[in-house]
Amino acid sequence: MIEPEEIRRREFNKVLRGYDTVEVRYFLEMLADELESLQKKLGEYEVPGFEGKSPGEIVEQARRKADEIVEEARQKAAEMIRAAERQRDMVEREIEKLKVKRLEIIKQVEELVYKLRNFVEAGIPDFREERSDESGV
What we know:
This protein is mainly α. The protein has helices spanning 4-9, 21-45, 55-123, 127-135. It has a domain at 1-46. The protein is 80% helix and 0% strand. The protein is rod-shaped and about 145 Å long.
C-alpha cells in the first residue's frame, strides 16, 4: 500500500511542455493528506486482534472462530442428549421396578383377601349362604 509520505516525496521528470510542477506538487499534497485522513479513519474502525489483516483474512478468522463455536455447541448438545438419554433409561428402569412392585403388592393383597375370606368362612359356618343370598346368586 502506498504511504502518504511516498506521495509527498514523489518526483517526476521535467519535460518541455509538461505539467505545471507547482500544480502537481499541490495535488500530490492534497492526495497525501486525504490518504492520511482515510488511514486514520480506518484505524478507528479496526477491531482489536485484526490490525493489519486483509478483509479476506478477517473473514477467514471469523469463519474459523464460528466453526469452533458451532463444534463446541454440537459437543455440548451431544453430551446433553447423552445425559438425557441416561436419565430417561434410569427413569424407565425405575418405572419397570415400580410395575413389578405393584404386581407384587396386588398379589399380596389378593393373598391377604383370600386368607381373610378363608378365616371368615372358617369362623362363620353360614357365611357362604348369607353371602349368596345378598348377591342374588
